[in-house]
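Quick start: read one record
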Amino acid sequence: MSSRPDLNSHLPSEAQRKEPQSRLGTEVLSLLQPSPGERILDLGCGNGDLTARIAAAGAVPTGIDLSADSIANARLRHPGLNLQVADAGKYRTDVRYDAVFSHAALHWIGNAEATAHTVWLALRDGGRFVAEFAGSGNLVALTDAVRQALSVRGYEAEGRIPWYLPTIGEYAGLLERTGFRVTSALHFDQLSPIKAPTGIRAMLDSFATYFFAGVAPEELDAVYDEVEAALMPFLYRDGQWTINKSRLRIAAVKLPQPKDA
């Protein structure tokens, strides 16, 4: 029997979760188009790599992340950047930013309404919000297989998915209610290779604390086997495991608050 992770161990840090994504932010950064002198808030900055790229364009970024470990790591990687530990739903500042940027973070933040309000408050009138994060359908084949494997063993399968995964309509509607005009919205799917040699099992290990809380340790190997078998016809090709990701990429502009009549 192979060893399974300690389900009571600490969750992966934001920096660990975002390490691969930081190399994939070029397209959404192009949508942001940071300009020299602009003040830009990087919400959920993780390891700070994209914050540093914003600074390299001549803008003046501030990065925030809820994880103190992530911010400590980011400060080591990018000394001199303004990086702060802060809750995206509660962050307040007297500075008004020209833009707010977020990459691979919003699906980890449960209170979408509070976060959207934070973004609106942080922006100057006419300021822009550019974000990319996981959307509806993300890892759906994996999560459906996990639910099935748990259900047949008598475990409650609902409530184990840790992410906020809206549809494009849900999230665009939220922004519009908050006081934004949505200028661009794209919901796209991509198959991404799993680099770990254990393939799908590595993904299950990564999210074990969420997916398998309360599952008897002696059942985990059978669950892993069943999930792997269910996914192999769809996600294993030519000796390579892939995973089906779904992403929202969205841009919006802050509308001025209506003045009292």
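Residues 1-22 have pLDDT under 50 and may be disordered.
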